[in-house]
Structures are given as C-alpha cells and as structure tokens.
Amino acid sequence: MTLHTGEKPFQCSLCNKRFSRSSHLQIHRRRLHSNRRPHQCPYCGMQFKTSIELKPHIRLHTDAKPYSCRHCSERFRWPDQLKRHLLKSHNEGTWFTCDVCEKKFITRRELKCHSFQHEGVKPYVCSECPKRFCTASQLKAHHLVHSGYKQFCCIVCSKDFRYKRSVVRHFKRCYKKLGCSGPFLFPNI
User: Fold this and answer.
1) Out of 20, 21, 161, 181, which could bridge 2 as a Cys pair, Cβ 3.0 to 4.6 Å?
2) What one-character-per-residue DSSP string does 125-152 give?
3) What CATH number was assigned to the domain covering residues 1-34?
C-alpha cells in the first residue's frame, strides 16, 4: 500500500533516492548505476541497458515512423515530432513558454532544462571532477570521459568507440572500403 500512502521505504545506497517499490529501486540501480548493457543494436552495435531503450534506436536504421497525424498523412519517428507537427501545422496542443525570453518548447521538461540556463543553475555534479551541468543527459555524456567505457562498436571491423558520432563517421568510411552502399540510415549528428 506504499504506492497510495506516498511512503518510500526503499532507498538507493548510492544516491539516496527513495522509491515506493523495491522493483522501482532495482530498475533505478540498473539504469543509473550499472554499466551493464546487454541489449545490442543489430545494425550498428550500439549497446543499451534495456530493450525499451534499444527499440526506438532501431528506428534510426529502419526509418520506421509509428506516430501518425490524425489530421493529415504525415508520419513521425518520435512522439515529440508528432507533437511539434500538431502544434505548428494544426494549432493543436499547448506550447510551454519561457517567462524570460519567450522561447517556446514542446515539453515541460525542455522548458525546465532551458530555464536552468537563465538561472545559471547546474544541479548535476560530476562525481569524478568539479564540473557541473544543466541537464542529466549532459552529465551522463561527460561521465564517458572518466569511465573509458566505449559503448559503440563498428560492426565491420569491431573497433570500439566512446561516442555515437565517432562510430557513425568511422562506420561510413569502413563500409565504403568494402565497396558497399547499404540500407543503413544514420541520424544527423
């Protein structure tokens, strides 16, 4: 019944975040505090902690667009792309607007991250060095500098890379050396 009472008896021993369910704590530990990445992309070799993270990544290679507009025939790879389309093309939905500069955002999360820049707030602190960041994703990317962990692998020559942009650039060269021009699609990085 802890879910309904608001009680959070399960605490992470690494960051002290609390959870109402033991299963939520286990998911948190696996996603935030583990380097284990058992799910690998069959197209580029990129590794993921969960199959839920792998599934949208595969769309980059297959060009699948599962989100469709109910007003027209447009289709989108990501839900935020559909939301942006509905706002811009069909005036449907609500923008989140910055009180300082009036810049508009599709999600409340994007606005919150943007607001940190105006306030100079950098709540995400690296545990290895004194660097601070506005967003969790910036901190996560920075952690690769310290870990030496290379999560991306070229499927042609098996060379490992720390950054997605590096493996994409390398793979294109490696793939061309084989004389191939294949069905692989890459994001614009």
Assistant:
1) 20
2) E-SSSS-EESSHHHHHHHHHHHH----E
3) 3.30.160.60
